[in-house]
Amino acid sequence: MKPIPAKIIYCLLLWCTANLCPPAKADTVVIIQNNFGRQQPYGFQFETSDPYNYQKLSESPKQISITFTQPVSPEESSIEVIDLYGAQVNNEPLAADGKTLYADLPPLAPGRYKVKWKARCRCTDQTQLNDVFRFVVR
User: Fold this and answer.
1) End-to-end CA distance of the chain, in Å?
2) Helix (H, G, I), strand (E, B) or coil at 96
3) Domain count, the chain
4) CATH code for the domain in which residue 126 is found
5) How many Å apart are CA 93 and CA 24, to the nearest integer?
6) Enclosing domain of residue 81
7) Distance from C-alpha of 85 to C-alpha of 112, rounded to nearest angstrom
8) Pick from 126, 124, 120, 68: nearest CA to 97
């Protein structure tokens, strides 16, 4: 049996509220929250990075940090910082502090950089995520 899509449940809730509930008093407020298109607050997911995507920095960052919603395994994860010419500029092992991965960087020359990352959760299902973000050093 397939689960009922959230949009259908939301529409049914609106219809039931409008047609089956007694009229609200003037001092009653009904709030229905719509979370369509947003990530749900469960599971292993990306939270934030420093630098963030397309950030323009006035100086070279000393490290890249990527934070997730659950503890991450640095042994099974990677962060590659790649310059404009396709060369990887970092080669130090990753460090982790619970939910955050860290990659130390050498001093970077002004230019555009791409960060390719892969992270594996320390959770029971060992979820793996990967993505790319970019930043600029001026």
Assistant:
1) 55
2) strand
3) 1
4) 2.60.40.1220
5) 61
6) 46-137
7) 9
8) 68
